Amino acid sequence: MMEPLLEGLEKTSYREGDTRVKVFGHGYLKSDILNEALNQARVEETGLRIPKLLEVRKADGKWAIVTEFVEGETLQSMMEQHPDKMHNYMEQFVLLQKEIQSKRSPLLTKLKDKMNRKISQSGLDATTRYDLHTRLNAMHDHIKVCHGDFHPSNVIVDKDGRLHVIDWSHATQGNGSADAARTFLLFKLEGKDDWAELYLKMFCDMNDVARQYVSQWMPIVAASQLVKHKPEEKDFLMRWIDVFDYE
Fold first, then answer.
1. Domain boundary, last residue among 20, 53, 68
2. According to DSSP H, which parts of the chain are helical?
3. How far, in Å, CA of 221 to CA of 115, rounded?
4. Longest alpha-carbon distance in the chain
5. How far is the C-alpha of 52 from the C-alpha of 183, rounded, in Å?
6. C-alpha of 219 from chain center
7. Of 13, 21, 58, 73, which residue is 20 to 30 A from 36 by alpha carbon distance?
8. Are both 80 and 141 inside the same structural domain?
9. What CATH number is associated with residue 177?
C-alpha cells in the first residue's frame, strides 16, 4: 500500500514501506528520468548523506524512481514553525550547502553547459541571449557539486537532527555561487525576502565570497529559470534579467 507524500501535476511521491517512490507523468522523457536516477547515484558516491537509490521501474505504466525513505520533517517546515530559531536553521542550511560544494563528481553535467542550453531555450531576444551567453562564459570554471534546486523543502531533518538532501534531478558540477544565486532567487520568488537576505549574507560570509560576485549570476540564473514556462514567474524573472549590468 502506497501512502501519498507529495502530489503534483506531473509527478507524485509515495511512501511504500521503507522506500520513497517518485512516479513521473507521461510528459516526462525517459531520458530525463534515467538521468535523474544517474545523478542520484553519482552524488551518492561522494559520501553525502542522501537517500540511496534502490531501483528504477514502471508503476502503472509510468516510470518511477525508488529511493530510501527518510523519516523526518523538512527544514522549511521547521523554519516556518519556529521563526525564533531561523538564524540557527539558516546556518545549518548554508553549512550543508558548503559541504555539498566541497565534493567532486567529475561525471555530472557541467553547470555552464546546462545554463548555456537553457539560455538558448529561454525565449529571450537574440541580443539579450548573446549578452547572457557572453557573461556566463566569462565566469570562473569550478568543479563543485551543485544541487541545482537547493531549498529547505529539499532538506529532511531526521529524529537525530541529521540533515538529508533529496531531489537531485538538477545536479551539476560547476561554480557554487551560481547555486547560491538560484537559492536566493527561489526565496525571492516565494516572497521570503528576509530569508533571502539572511541566506545570502551567511553564504557569502561562510565561503568568503563577495555578494557582488553572486549577484553577477542572478540574470544568468533568472534566464535559465524561464525554461520552466511558468507565467506567474515570468515578470519576476524578467526584472532580474533587466538589471543586467552591460559592461
1. 68
2. 30-44, 75-81, 86-101, 111-120, 126-138, 176-189, 193-207, 211-225, 231-242
3. 8
4. 58
5. 24
6. 17
7. 73
8. yes
9. 3.90.1200.10
Q: Are residues 119 and 237 in the same domain?
A: yes
Residue type, position 216, single letter: Q
pTM: 0.94
List, as one string, the DSSP characters of 195-239.
HHHHHHHHHHHHHT--HHHHHHHHHHHHHHHGGG--HHHHHHHHH
Q: Whole domain around residue 22: which residue ranges?
A: 3-68
Q: Are strands 73-74 and 163-165 parallel, antiparallel or unpaired?
A: unpaired
Same domain for 120 and 98, yes or no, is yes
Per residue in 126-165, pLDDT (tens digit) is 999 999 999 999 999 999 999 999 999 999 999 999 999 9
pLDDT number for residue 211: 97
pLDDT in tens, 101-133: 999 999 999 999 999 999 999 999 999 999 999
Three cell numbers written together for 223: 534566464
Cell, residue 212: 557582488
